[in-house]
Design brief:
By secondary structure, the chain is an all-alpha fold. It is about 70% helix and about 0% strand. It is built from 4 helices and no strands.
Length: about 120
């Protein structure tokens, strides 16, 4: 996950998110705060990713029930987490396959070797 390093970045990030939630455009936010529109876009993407991961975590982890059914609940929680992790693994594998195919197409179309050769020469 992306981490903001300075207090100024954290303050600007919170202001960008607040202005975006109020309906301001990217250009207007960048003019108000004094940062580039690409930085605004990047920060909003980070915020959207963070928000969606928080929503997923809330859906997966319901409040713990009474101690009488704690074993059943823990099994259900583990099964839900297992399903979530399997879905994430599938997404990651699909992404890796997509990127691999993009490289294959680029190498074929532009006739340029993009991947490194195995066993680099050593001096």
């Amino acid at each position: 996950m992306y981490h903001l390093h300075t207090k100024k970045q954290k303050a600007h990030f919170e202001e960008v998110v607040r202005l975006h939630q109020q309906g301001c455009s990217l250009g207007r936010i960048s003019r108000i705060i004094g940062i580039s529109s690409s930085t605004v876009r990047e920060w909003l993407a980070i915020f959207a990713t963070y928000q969606s991961s928080q929503r997923r975590m809330k859906k997966v982890n319901p409040p713990t029930p009474s101690p009488a059914s704690s074993t059943e609940a823990s099994v259900a929680n583990l099964q839900a987490e297992n399903a979530r992790l399997r879905a994430e693994l599938l997404d990651a594998r699909l992404r890796a396959d997509l990127l691999d195919e993009i490289i294959n197409v680029a190498e074929a179309q532009f006739k340029l070797p993009i991947r490194k050769k195995a066993g680099a020469k050593q001096p």
